[in-house]
Amino acid sequence: MPPTTSLSTLSPELDLAILGQLSSAKDLYAAIAVSPTFYHLFSNYKRSVISSVLRNAIPREIEKEFVLAYHAQSLWAYVYEPPDTVIRQQIFDPDSPVSQEIVEEFEVETRAVLKMGQDGEWPTLSSLSADPEVLMDMWDFYRKFEGFMLEYSEKALAELRRLPTGLDNDTNMDLDPEADTTRLPISITEESRLKRAFFRFELYTCLFQFSQVTYGDLYIQFGPVNPLPAEEYLSSLCGWEAEELACVAQFYSTLVEGLCHKIDADFVARVKAKAKADGAALTAPGLKVNRDSVNYWLNYHNFRWFSGSYKKRYRRIHIDYIVSRGVLALSKVTRAPFHIAQEMILQCHLLAEGQTSIVTDLHRLYPSDSVSHNPAPAQSTDLEQITAAAAALALNPAGTATATLKIGFPGYGFKMAVARTPGRRWECNAPGNRALRSVGFLFWDEARLRAVQLLTVPAGKSPRGHRKNVQDVSVENALAGLNVRREVVVAVLGDVLGPEWEGKSSTGNGQAGDAMDIDGGSGHGMDPRFDMHWRD
Question: What residue spans carry the region label Disordered (predicted)?
Fold first, then answer.
């Protein structure tokens, strides 16, 4: 009997109860897509169903992190971004005095969010859900996370399965073919850890905005703020908790980096196509040798994003800047059509220059913990208690958690990840642990990792064969030897950035002007749904 036929024989109350037991947006929308019964019930009881699913998706143990991340979204009102320049003009307008009140108010609001988490005086999910508008806003907010978390877990577990031949280091990485635990379904505890890390990184991102806005000119104007809210938040975490944030940051960076590679490839393909169509004009008389390269014309028009020098010095800073825009902006840029994502990324490249990096600061601001003296929180958290109980049941399904079960890191597979020798310090976001972060080594249960003998790489130690700052093939290398006229490059940039770009491409006095307006974006009517902004 087809599932939809079976459901039609159940009472509406039971069908509604089934919907209310789901614990993910993915499952909910899959259910209403295949069942007319579920669809009609969802239409009639939408808020009730969403409220139940949201509470199931965010268990009590990680509710605090989600609520704080949601509440911290109010801080974006103080962050200047294109096309919102009101705050920036108030702070940096040379014709008016710098408003220290704005900066002070921003700091007060940022520290209020931080204090809310420290004091435990945060609103519960149930109290917030009582407001229908807030409920739907939180639901949309959560759905952005869920999409990223599913993608992360799929990629990380796929990498984990390839580990016996995927890493080159000194560890023994033989996989027991009789016990491939890497293919176990994701457990509740693993899912909770992953969600908690994504929520925490969003909270850290919001707190970090004060660091970014006051970096540079305002730092000189008002002096240092010590400690910064983001730094204070990081210092409240254990080393392994801060490293969880580094896992999320690396994942986001990889997504944006992939888009940047696509933008490079698209630019190369466009230049080649237009140069080929240009035909004989490519060898027109009068062209000098140093004026027939793409790099020359990119520099001439002060559009360095595609140049190799920019890629080596600033591309990483730009990627980190986009990561620091928060989960809502990241969801937009990674889910938008390619031409929209391309414009979103290119239009903010000037804003990224001179900014402090949210990823680098994970390593710079976090006070390295000595694993020997601070291996775990002093008290077991609710999440750890659940992990301990789950581990006990896994060992003895008929019994319950026993007093002999050690707490601290119960069930965490990453106990094997750090060489806990005396004096060993955990370096958050250490370059040598990049491969470990890509497999999500901090989130998985010990049962999943038991068969994979890889997690003995000491934190902070680069594995053999590790290369720092590996650069991909630049646009110049991809177009090496291709002679192009200025008109070809201008036409391609016009296609990428919009027709009005050509009018802004030079200052008219023989010197190149900014290809992009730092305050107004590209200025050719980009779809407002995809502004590089946290607001929907």
Answer: 501-527
Distances (CA, A) of 525 to 98, 340, 489, 520, 531: 30, 11, 22, 10, 10
When mean pLDDT is compared over 6-10, 464-468, 517-521, the highest value belongs to 6-10
Tokens of 84: 């919102």
| Bridge partners of residue 333, in order along the sequence | none
Closest CA to 246 of 396, 378, 80, 436: 436
- Find out whether the peptide bond into 94 is cis, omega within 30 degrees of 0: no
- pLDDT for the residue numbered 521: 36
- The three-class DSSP label of residue 425 is strand
Nearest to 343 by CA among 160, 202, 525, 513: 525
Question: What's the sign of the alpha-carbon dihedral 124, 358, 74, 143?
Answer: negative
Q: Which of 496, 493, 513 is nearest to 505 (CA)?
A: 513
Cα–Cα distance measured from residue 168 to residue 527, given in angstroms and rounded to the nearest whole number: 45
User: Whole-angstrom Cα distance, residue 51 to residue 104?
Assistant: 37
Amino acid at 387: T
Three-class SS of residue 474?
coil
- Band (pLDDT 50/70/90 cuts) for residue 153 is very high
> In the chain, how long is the greatest CA-to-CA distance?
87
CA distance 174 to 162: 11
DSSP code for 121 = -
Percentage of residues in the chain with pLDDT exceeding 90?
24
DSSP code, position 77: G
Cβ–Cβ < 8 Å for 428, 239: yes
Where does the pLDDT of residue 222 fall: very low under 50, low under 70, confident under 90, or very high at 90 and above?
low
The H-or-E segment that residue 369 falls in is: strand 369-370
In angstroms, rounded to a whole number, what is the distance separating the alpha carbons of residues 321 and 352? 6
CB 454 within 8 A of CB 163: yes
Lowest mean pLDDT among 8-17, 64-73, 91-100, 209-218: 91-100
The residue behind tokens 């004026």 is 291
Chain mean position to CA 342: 17
Measured in residues, the chain has a length of 536
Element (H, E) at 426: strand 425-426
Task: Give the amino acid at 33.
Answer: A
Closest Cα partner for 213 from 347, 71, 80, 365? 80
Residue type, 399: G
Confidence of residue 260 (pLDDT cuts 50, 70, 90): very high
Distance of CA 354 to the CA centre of its chain: 20
H helix runs in 336-458, sequence order: 338-347, 349-352, 358-365, 382-395, 434-438, 446-449
Higher pLDDT, 530 or 99: 99
More confident residue, 221 or 404: 221
